[in-house]
Design goal:
With 130 residues, the chain is of the alpha+beta class. Helices cover 22% and strands 40% of the residues. The protein has helices at residues 8-16, 54-61, 93-103, and strands at 20-25, 31-36, 39-41, 44-50, 64-69, 77-87, 116-128.
Length: 130
């Protein structure tokens, strides 16, 4: 599948957003929704999380995700995609640097909750606001 392009206005909403709301699926199929910091890279959204977090366990069991990007009712974004858990060594340096620049937080710093991992979300389709 090729890159899913956003309109200029939708890309601006994504670039300005501080968080995305990621919905993963628990083993029983019920949704788990969580806000998270992120960096966008073409048709992919990247985040970093402690491996022990629910969203990581959910993605490892079922890679289907939905994403909502804060905006007004006129410019909110909603997408579907597939997520892959990556070691931090597998996350491109520009993504880690982007998270550090955007949030003044270095995802490579040790986490008291344990190992950090990257989650790569490949957007398969935008459902709203694209």
């Amino acid at each position: 599948m090729g890159v899913v392009r956003l309109s200029a206005s939708a890309a601006a909403v994504l670039a300005a957003a501080r968080v995305i709301w990621v919905t993963t699926l628990r083993l029983d199929g019920s949704p788990h929704v969580t806000p998270t910091w992120f960096v966008a890279d073409e048709d992919r959204l990247w985040l970093v999380s402690a491996r022990t977090n629910v969203k990581v366990r959910n993605v490892e069991a079922d890679p289907r995700v939905s994403v909502a990007v804060d905006g007004t009712t006129d410019n909110a974004l909603v997408a579907e995609g597939h997520a892959t858990v990556r070691t931090l060594d597998e996350v491109p340096h520009q993504i880690l640097d982007g998270l550090e620049a955007k949030y003044a937080w270095d995802p490579r710093d040790p986490d008291p909750d344990g190992e950090r991992v990257g989650i790569e979300i490949t957007v398969s389709r935008w459902l709203l606001g694209y």
